[in-house]
Amino acid sequence: MTLPAGNFLFPAAATAQNAVDAAASQLSSGPFDPAKVIDLARAMSKQPQKKLSLDLPDSVQNLNFEQYASIRRVPETNIWANIKTGFAIEPMHRGFIFNSPMQLFTVEDGNVQRINYDPAEFSFGKITPPTAPKDFGFAGFRILQTGSEGTREAAVFYSAGFYQTIARGQTPGVAARGLSIRTADTQKEEFPNFIAAWIERPVLAANLVVIHGLLDSESVTGAYRFTFRPGEMTIVDTECTLFPRVAIDHYGLGTMQGTYLYGPIERRRSDDVRPGVYDVAGLAMLSGQNEWIWRPVANRQNLQVSAFVDENPRGFGFLQRDRDFSSFMDDDQHWEQRPSLWIEPIGDWGPGWVTLLEIPAEAQTNQNIVAYWRSRAGLVAGTEPTFAYRQFWCWTPPNRPPYAIASRSRSGRVPGAPANAKRRRFQIEFTGDILGDETQSPDVTPKASASTGSIVAVRFVLVRAQKAMRVTLDVDAGNDALCELRLLLESGGKPVSETWLYRWTP
């Protein structure tokens, strides 16, 4: 297919008039150097953001989901589909809500080769294919793992600035963002896009894919490097260098988003045959002071923002702790098979907050639970901060508490409570080997507190044979609009469980 001399992002080298054009032209063809992606991001940050055209031909401009889903890449045209690399790349067509353009390149034998858009490489079903000889870019790409067991989708990177992957045997759920800016802030939130990616040709024996990404928004540009290793636990190493165009006092690293519609701790929207609909049970944290924290999440009536102050966090993530099908009874979605996402910072991130957003939602398609690390120090225009972290997409994180965890959290009405009283009963079940060993945990007792209101009753049952303790709290909020609850199991004055936290909003 014949294309115009330039393209939507990188002008032809002959027309390069400034540092952006010069840096871009070096990444369109010829030898590849990861430092050139950093050079391009730096050069772009010194100019206002270039708004990319979202226009598409009329036949694919305003598609609904079913129409968009009918557009399929012809499998034989996938990148490396016929080469034994262990992986293939499937460029994704733009359309529906996936409208931001991304330009794709491969790196083979050290050289860059552009992936051109060609409608002949897609099957459009009943939709009229585009005919204009124009590069519309892509909505992102899928990483397909290939081998003797067939082909499976291993990861998806979207031009809209987020990506998903899974461990072996899982179904997609929680998603990660490259960067978040002013999320749920009073100022306008920005959604940085991945506008270009350079994908290194994999080596079969290595079982990994390296992706270099270029991120852009009104306030910042960024150069990213992802090292993707699929397996029983899929590991994604992320390195990024950010180039703020302006001062940014609110940005998020390691941003993740998932779904909680209803479940055992919050059932306001549970008029459904299924007992639960969620792929995120809660937010786990390992603080810089080595405290393990578990915060169940919920679908709130009003937006709730929680900030957990820390310095140099050792890890945090969204976990799906309920792996029992009977907790969901959903043969289509299989919420019990969704991945947990655990992040471990590499290097010091300094003081800041793990920020949790719980956003009201009415549908299971909304990823209404968001978390990220917010640094106390903002981004300063003209600086070039670098960050690195490792993501574990898994069934259970590799780093876990050395004592009991809060495996189940439930809430319900308090029987016999006055109709006008703001009271709620919470039942938390802790499980772990330490609870089954009387020599390690003699005289286990719960330590519970409430920031406002009062805890009017505490009851607990320790079942050594089950290695479990169930704690029931009856809480009275009084005249307060919210109540922060805290619960910890202790033995001999020392913790034998992670710290359970919850915000009750009567």
Structure description:
- The chain is mainly beta and 506 residues long.
- The protein has 2 domains: 58-394, Beta-galactosidase, Chain A, domain 5 (Distorted Sandwich), CATH 2.70.98; 405-504, Immunoglobulins (Immunoglobulin-like, Sandwich), CATH 2.60.40.10.
- It contains 4 helices and 34 strands.
- It has helices at 19-26, 34-45, 58-61, 65-69, and strands at 30-31, 72-73, 87-92, 103-108, 111-115, 122-123, 140-147, 150-158, 162-165, 175-177, 180-181, 193-200, 209-216, 220-229, 234-244, 251-258, 260-262, 277-278, 282-286, 292-296, 304-311, 315-319, 340-346, 351-358, 369-375, 386-394, 405-412, 423-431, 445-450, 454-463, 468-476, 483-491, 494-495, 499-504.
- The strands form 5 sheets. The protein has a 16-stranded mixed sheet that branches. Strands 3, 7, 8, 9, 10, 11, 16, 21, 24 and 25 form a 10-stranded antiparallel sheet that branches. Strands 27-28-31-30 form a 4-stranded antiparallel sheet, with no helix packed on it.
- Strand 7 (140-147) and strand 8 (150-158) form a beta hairpin.
- Helix 1 (19-26) runs antiparallel to helix 2.
- The chain is globular, with a radius of gyration of 25 Å.
- It starts with 18 loop residues before the first helix and ends with a strand.
